[in-house]
User: What shape does this take?
Amino acid sequence: MPKLYIILILVGLISIPRIHGQRLKFEHYGEEDGLSNNSVRHILQDDKGFIWLGTSSGINRFDGYSFNRFSSITSGGVNTINNDQITALSIDEFNKKLWIGTKNGLTVLKLDTHQFTTFLPDINNIHSLPDAHIISVYVDKHNKVWVGTKSKGLYLFHPEEERFVRIDIKGFESITTIYEDKRGNIWIGSYGKGAIAKIKADSTGEILGLKTYKLRIPNSNEINPYVNFIYEDFKSDLFVGTSKGGLYKFDIINNTFENLYIKDDTIRKNLGPYFFSIAQAPDGKYWIGTIGGLIVCNQIEDIEKGDFQWHFSKINDDTSISDNYISSLYFDKSGVLWIGTEDGLDKYDPFENLFTVRSDISNYIDTHFIKIRGFAKTFDSKIIAATRQNGLFKLGNNQFDFLFKSDYDISSIFSIDGIFFYLGLWNGSLLIYNYENNQAKIVDTGIDNDLILTIAEYSDTEIIVGSNSNGVVVLNKKD
Assistant: This one.
C-alpha cells in the first residue's frame, strides 16, 4: 500500500485572521494579578525556580501562580526592605542571598530564612557606604559583591568585616551597570564624564589594572551616553546598550567602542536610540529590549543592517507585548522568557508558540474566514489544502496559492499517488481532482445527503468512503 501522508486533520471551522508574518503570543501579568507595581525593572530566578521581580513598589516573588510581595510596608518590623524603589538585583547562589539595590540603601535577603539586612551610610563608620542611592549591584564568579552608587562611585563589599572599599575610577561617580566577561574582567558602565571602564583581574579576582573608554554619540558633539547594559556574546564580542547613543560593539583591533548605527532611517526612528536590556535564548538567538519594543536576531551585529524580527505592542492585540518600553529580559531555566515593561510583566513560552498561523489563503477569499477540511501531499512534495466552499490551495515555497476553484461543499480529502485527489462532499458525492491537468469530475457514490467523512484505499483497484450516518461504500478507482 502506498504511504498515506496525513499532515493535519481539522474538525470544525478554522478561522484565520489577517496576520502579516509570524505572531508570538505573550502572556501578561499586572497589578490586577497581584503584582505590586506594573513597572518591572529587574528579573532573576533562584535555584528553587522562584522568579524575583524588582518593581517601583518592592520585591515580588513569583511561583508561576501567585505573587508574594516584600516591601517596607508588608514585611513589617526590622526585618524589611528599607525602600521600595528597587534599582538593582543580583543573586549569590552559593551563599543563597539576593542582593537588592534601592534608592535608600543596599539590602541583602537570605533566601532560606527571608531575613533582610540593609546597609546605609553611617557617619560613625568610615567603611560604610557613603551613598544610600544604589544604582547597580553584581555578584561575580568569586562571590564578590560589587556595588554601584548614584554619586559616590564603585565599591567592593567584604562580608567578613561588613566593609565597603571604594574602587577609584576617575570620572565614574554614577555606576549604572556592572558586568563580568568570560575571562573574569569586570566592566563598569557610567555616563557623563566616563562611559566604560575595564577592571582586569587575575584568576582569584584580584585587581591587576584599569582602563577607561569613551562612547561617541552619532551625529552629535555629545559623548558618553547613559550605559544600560554591557554584554558579551558567544563569540566573546562585547556590546554596550545605551540611552541616546544606541548600541555599541568593542573593536578589539583598535581598542575602541564603535557605534552600530542603524542605516535605515525609518527603522532607526521607530526603535529609538534607547537599548535597555538583552538576553540570549536557548536556541542561540538574542532578544534585545528597546524603547520601541523587542528585537530578535541571530547576531547582535545584524541590528545595524536591520536584519531582525521586531515585536511591539498593538492596541487591539491582547497577545502582543504589554508595552514597548522593555526594561528587563530574563530566560529562566526552563527556557521561558520573562519581560519587564513599564506596564506589567510579560511571559513568552516558546513551547506554546511552536505553530505559525498562516493567512495566505484568506487573501483570496472575500470574507477572510477560512474553513479548512484537510490536507494531502502531491507527487511533487507540495501540500494541498481543501477548503469547505472555496476550492483547493497549494502550499509551495512557504506560501499558499490558489489552485482550483470549486463551489462544492468539501468535507474531506485523500490521495494515494499525489496526482488524483478524492474529495468527499457534504451531499454524499465524490469530487475527483486531477492535479496534473487541474480538472475535476463528480462521482455518485450512492450516498444521498450525508457528508463523506473519510476516504481510504481498499485494494489496488478500489477505494472506500465512509459517511456520517449511512455506512461505507466501496468504489472502483476507474470511476
